[in-house]
Amino acid sequence: MQSILGASALTAMPYASLANKDYSIVQLLESVSAKTTGSLFGFRVDPIDKVRVGIIGLGNRGNTLLEMFQWLVENDRAEIVGLADINEKKVIAAKEKLSVWQKTAPQTFSKGKNNWKNLAKQDDVDLLVIATPWELHTPMAIYGMNQGKHVACEVPIAYTIQDCWDLVQTAEETKKHCVMLENCCYNEEELFVLNMVENGVFGDLTHVEGAYLHDLRALMLSEDYYEDQWRLKHHISRDGNFYTTHGLGPLSYYLKIGRGDTYSHLTSMSSRELNLSRTAQQQNSKFTQFKCGDMNTTLIKTALGKTIMLQFDVHTGRPYSRINKVVGTKAVHDGYPSRLYIDGEEPEFWGHNWLNNEEYNEYKTKYNHPLFNQLKEISENFKQGHGGMDFVMIYRLITCLNLGLPLDINLYDGVMWSAITPLSELSVAEKSKSIPIPDFTSGQWKATNSLEIMRSF
Ligand SMILES: NC(=O)c1ccc[n+]([C@@H]2O[C@H](COP(=O)([O-])OP(=O)(O)OC[C@H]3O[C@@H](n4cnc5c(N)ncnc54)[C@H](O)[C@@H]3O)[C@@H](O)[C@H]2O)c1
User: Are 327 and 214 within one domain?
Assistant: First the structure.
């Protein structure tokens, strides 16, 4: 596995020796920076009437994404022209699934670990969708853009800080869309909260909390679920928050990160590891020792002084949660389950209770995001996509391309939300040292642009 900062940083300064060196982390982070300009805010390309799509990676996620295209294919807005995976059986199964709702057969690519490049080179591909293991995301996205393709990549889009810079430089130079497919930004609860934030219900925000708390022990320890148990292997050699974007994407929209505010610095701490190894031993797994702590907590401060608490735990048995807490001067929201507190204007109306069901539902009716309402009927047929949000995400992506509009999630969003992983690893390894967060936008975050996800069309 690569170093946190990327291959060139590893050569320049071995990561293992960081703790003992007199060095500046700022210098280190900047030393791997590429030539970037921040020129892709508001980026749009000419309308593409029917988006021709190639999918790389047809495992669990690639299959769900494929299914999300059904309505768009049937309505002539997209066509699946190519399918690639190193596992031939998965390609054949996906092709069969597609044949039920698309007349033309896609080309298939399953001969070896580099065969996906032939799909990326095809002239008839507009958009490459990438749903492979994490460390392949950036190389595949960069190769795709260099072949003249727009790319839409699963989370996280980057794995090292060098990846982040390389993605920004390549997208800016090739002038291609490079979007991270962060589906949680399109979940009904997050869109409802965002709509309230945008309409001033919370007043001014001071603090938010998010997470990826998901018991993945059974799936990670299974020898069949993830190809070659790739996901478990990260837990053997790394420690930090590996899955930042499900929580951080929506929170960053609430805080207008990249649109008037940005991350300044972070500190990160991991608990001891107990639960994954205990379960692995009980199950006689071939892997039983893990470096990643059961719970990672990362604190991020923004340039405008707001704070973010982000947690990551996939080792502990517990109900799923992304927390989704928003604290503002006028209201507070807590997720899982969604609850709302509205502060009274006078002291006699200050309270300690969440709104009751009836009061909450009034807010829900008033502020449910128009996008979710608009697509509810169609997306109800696609419930397998995490309760509808996956369909809304793919619908928005393809519709923006059909109409030639800027995408909801821009290049810098995906890179900034992903960069927190390697930076959290660096902080954990350095006894929670405060780590400055590089500015991947070349200062363009200062422009108070509105959120594309709030547009209706
Ligand atoms: N957004 C979400 O809700 C969500 C949910 C699940 C997974 N994911 C993301 O999706 C990605 C894939 O996860 P998954 O659960 O589908 O894993 P998976 O192991 O089921 O699928 C990965 C696929 O990539 C293929 N692959 C590996 N190397 C390849 C290569 N060189 N060329 C072509 N194909 C190759 C594998 O054969 C496998 O089929 C991950 O990045 C994960 O984080 C996102």
Answer: yes
How far is Cα 107 from Cα 422, in angstroms, rounded to an integer? 36
Identify whether 255 is part of a domain: yes
**Domain co-membership, 192 together with 300:** yes
Pocket (CB within 6 angstroms of ligand 1):
56-62, 84-87, 90, 113, 116, 131-134, 136, 154-155, 183, 226-227, 230, 386
Burial bucket for residue 115 (CB in 10 Å: 0-12, 13-18, 19+) = middle
User: Per residue in 65-117, pLDDT tens?
Assistant: 999 999 999 999 999 999 999 999 999 999 999 999 999 999 999 999 999 99
Q: What is the residue whose two structure tokens read 């995976």?
A: 85
Instruction: Give the three-state DSSP class for 117.
Output: helix
How many domains does the structure of the chain reveal? 2
Is residue 152 one of the residues assigned to a domain?
Answer: yes
| Helix (H) or strand (E) run with residue 379 in it | helix 370-379
Is pTM beyond 0.85? Reply is: yes
Q: Rounded to the nearest whole angstrom, what is the distance from the C-alpha of residue 214 to the centroid of ligand 1?
A: 17
Reading phi first (left if > 0) and then psi (alpha if -120 to 50, else beta), residue 176 is in beta
Torsion of CA 128, 134, 139, 141, to 10 degrees: 30
CATH, residue 173 = 3.40.50.720
418 in helix, strand or coil?
helix
- 27 falls within a domain: no
DSSP label at residue 321? B
Give the CATH number of the domain where residue 237 resides. 3.30.360.10
